[in-house]
What we know:
By secondary structure, the chain is mainly α. 73% of the residues lie in helices and 0% in strands. It contains five helices and no strands. It has helices at residues 2-34, 43-53, 58-65, 69-83, 88-98. The protein starts with a helix and ends in a 9-residue tail after the last helix.
Amino acid sequence: xxxxxxxxxxxxxxxxxxxxxxxxxxxxxxxxxxxxxxxxxxxxxxxxxxxxxxxxxxxxxxxxxxxxxxxxxxxxxxxxxxxxxxxxxxxxxxxxxxxxxxxxxxx
Length: 107
């Protein structure tokens, strides 16, 4: 009987731990969703966003910031995720709307 009670308690604890883990994950995701936008970006991600918005290549951004091409690529991937961009077109539309592009298109 005592063994059965212990088994039930352990199963209950495991279920509660899973619920707690699922809840923590859901809260973290919700927090990230609420922080979408430029405020969610690190300073480096913001610099990469501005460089991309102004037509700089990843290599040029890397040289300007004194970091590796791979690090710039990682910052780009992170900012795309944080901002909810699915393509570079999304990034450019956002950058134009926010006035992040320094050069204006001449028509």
